[in-house]
Write a structure and sequence with these properties.
about 120 residues, mainly alpha, 3 helices, about 85% helix, elongated
Length: about 120
């Protein structure tokens, strides 16, 4: 019982911190990618900002997923677990989509053809 109280006391700040880290990573990545976009547009640079933005989004999603996984410890009802499971699945799918896009774009830019299925 004491262990449950310790978990219920310590876990919410850790979850909040992970959520904030995810928000921070996504925000910084977006601002940096936008800055590079302005450089590409007005100064005709050739910076691959799609990779940087996608990597930042993927990293931010990883922090958010870690927070969601920790939230499963605090779940008390089945309805909460279903909602949490749906959120985790959506974030995992987004993360996989971003990684797939990064991998596909890196093959295209290096001149390789993506592997046929």
């Amino acid at each position: 019982m004491i262990f449950d109280q310790i978990i219920e006391t310590i876990l919410p700040p850790i979850i909040g911190f992970l959520e904030l880290l995810g928000i921070f990573v996504v925000t910084v990545s977006t601002v940096h990618a936008f800055w590079q976009y302005l450089g590409n547009t007005f100064f005709h640079r050739n910076y691959a900002l799609q990779f940087e933005l996608a990597e930042g989004l993927a990293e931010g999603l990883e922090f958010k997923m870690a927070a969601e996984i920790l939230k499963t410890v605090l779940v008390r009802e089945m309805s909460e677990l279903l909602i949490l499971g749906a959120v985790i699945i959506l974030r995992a799918l987004l993360s996989m989509l971003i990684h797939f896009e990064l991998k596909n774009n890196s093959h295209t830019q290096s001149g390789e053809q993506p592997a046929a299925k």
